[in-house]
Structures are given as C-alpha cells and as structure tokens.
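User: Could you go from structure to sequence for me? I need the amino acid at each position, not a summary. Structure tokens:
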C-alpha cells in the first residue's frame, strides 16, 4: 500500500499552514496510511483528528507544539460552561492514529481557576503516542470512551456524549505527562511504557477542600469485566510537590484498574498510595496493584490494605502483548 506524506509548515508556502487544514483534506473514509510531517513551530489550533490510518510526526516535542486554552469553567455563548469534554486542545476520534515527537498542551493554567482542561481527548482503537509531551494541570489526558452515564446532569456534554461506548487500546511510549489532579483518566486499556509522569506543585491544593493533598495521578473508569485498565511499565513518577502529598490514583468509577510494574516512584507519592474517593465499595471492586516499585515513594508495607503487591507470576499477566491483546507495536 502506498504511503502518502503531507507537509505542515509555518514558513513553507507550498505546505499546509495548519494541521487541521491538512487533516480536513483527507477523505473521511480514508484507508491509505497518511503521514503529516509537521515542521517546527507553535500551532495554536483546537484539533480534531477524525481520519483513520493517520500519523502526525514532528521533529522534536520541544520545537513542535500543538496548543490551545479552552477550559471547563469557560463561559460559552449560550451562557453555559464549557465543561470537561469540550475543553480539549486535541481530540482523537478515529482508529489507527499515531503521534510522534510532538507536544500537546492545554495552556489554560491551574485547575483551581480553570477547572478541568484536557490537552488530549483520545477515543479510538490502536492509538499510539511516542516521544510526546502532554502538558496540562487538571485532567490532562482523557483516554476515552466515556463511562456509560454521567453522575452529574450534563456532565458529559461534548462530542461523544451520545456515541456508543467502544473501548480501545492505547499505548504511550517514552512520553512525558504533566498534571496535578486526575490528570490521566478514562476507560481505555492503556499501556504506558518508559514514560515520565510528573505531578505539578500547586500550593492551593493544600487547602481544606483537598485535605492537604496535592493531587491524584490517575482516575481510571475501567468498565466492569474489562481485563485491563491502566498499566505503567518502567515509568518514572516525578514531581516538585512536597513529600508524601500525591496519590497514585483514585477510582472515577468503581471497577477502576491501575497496575504499576517496576516503576521508579519519587518521594511525593503518599505512603498509602491509593485513595478510594470515599467509596467503600471501591475496596472490593477496584484493582490497584504494584510489582517491584522502587525509589523513595515505594512503600509496599504501608499501602492501603485493599491494594495489591503482585507476585512474579501475577505480574507476568501484564506484558504489553497481553494487555494490548494482539496489537503489535
């Protein structure tokens, strides 16, 4: 099958000047692998990637930046608020999408002021990000689909509110993800390999509303019966937060699954590790586990009793091949 290459550039008059313009030039029913080669620059666009078999590749995430600044508390023309799921800077709504050597940013700032603000809303199967930076604060990365129903009225207003919930497989390889509260969240099966997961300091998070916590890294909403949720393999969890001030995760929905394998945890991780989001049933319905965590934030003997420390044979069930179920990367 022939490969098509399109160029996006801020300076080349023969290339597409916007990423969205290049995407929109592709037929919606595309079946041919297409690469968008994105030249260095800051691309301030609210992107929708809705063509399959598409690769977006930059030269370096430090010099190729895709950014926007919508946020949940932002007023809309009809007087409503934008809400979480319209706040994305980049929205992937297709299968077989690859992003490489790019920065995806939501620049709206602290969640205390802006509320939720997605850098990436990723909904599809076989979504790969490699050597990318995802920059945000609250709710940086949403790995769709949405849960079956919202807890609060109009909580899911956005492009997929009424769509069928189809769970996909994602892989994040050699990526850096920044945020503070629930900044990796959603329902997909997602494998994080050799990533840096950085919790941002926000001193306002120490007030009584947050009980002295600086944040939560994950908020999975794994559907009941789905074998895998989030798996982190040999990732480095870093921060500029105070010691013992950040949770590894809490369950957005009751059957949340998050597993850490051979991860390096810095001192910001709370000794208890996981939070139940004040849901007693989460103690029996979630699956939070670690295997050979190390570093100053690793404290297996002090983790909450309803989390798990995996044996070698149990950890062997979480290889990339098993988690991604036949999708070979």
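Assistant: Here is the amino acid at each position, in order:
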């Amino acid at each position: 099958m022939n490969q098509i290459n399109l160029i996006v550039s801020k300076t080349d008059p023969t290339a597409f000047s916007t990423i969205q313009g290049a995407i929109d030039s592709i037929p919606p029913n595309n079946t041919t692998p297409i690469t968008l080669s994105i030249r260095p620059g800051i691309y301030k666009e609210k992107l929708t990637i809705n063509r399959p078999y598409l690769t977006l590749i930059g030269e370096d995430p430090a010099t190729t930046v895709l950014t926007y600044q919508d946020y949940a508390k932002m007023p809309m023309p009809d007087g409503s608020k934008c809400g979480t799921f319209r706040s994305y800077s980049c929205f992937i709504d297709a299968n077989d999408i690859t992003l490489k050597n790019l920065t995806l940013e939501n620049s709206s700032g602290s969640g205390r002021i802006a509320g939720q603000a997605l850098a990436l809303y990723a909904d599809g199967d076989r979504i790969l990000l490699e050597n990318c930076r995802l920059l945000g604060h609250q709710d940086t990365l949403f790995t769709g689909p949405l849960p079956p129903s919202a807890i609060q009225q109009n909580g899911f207003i956005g492009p997929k509110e009424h769509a069928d919930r189809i769970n996909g497989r994602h892989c994040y390889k050699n990526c850096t993800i920044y945020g503070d509260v629930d900044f990796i969240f959603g329902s997909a099966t997602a494998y994080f390999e050799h990533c840096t997961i950085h919790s941002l300091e926000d001193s306002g998070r120490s007030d009584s509303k947050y009980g002295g916590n600086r944040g939560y890294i994950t908020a999975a909403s794994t559907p009941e019966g789905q074998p895998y949720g989030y798996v982190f393999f040999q990732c480095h969890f870093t921060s500029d937060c105070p010691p013992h001030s950040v949770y590894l995760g809490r369950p957005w929905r009751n059957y949340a699954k998050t597993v850490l394998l051979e991860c390096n945890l810095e001192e910001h991780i709370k000794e208890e590790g996981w939070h139940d989001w004040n849901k007693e049933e989460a103690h029996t319905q979630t699956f939070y586990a670690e295997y050979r965590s190390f570093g100053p934030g690793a404290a297996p003997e002090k983790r909450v009793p309803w989390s798990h420390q995996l044996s070698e044979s149990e950890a062997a069930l979480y290889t990339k091949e098993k988690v991604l179920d036949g999708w070979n990367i």
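One structural detail worth keeping in mind: The chain has a mean pLDDT of 95.
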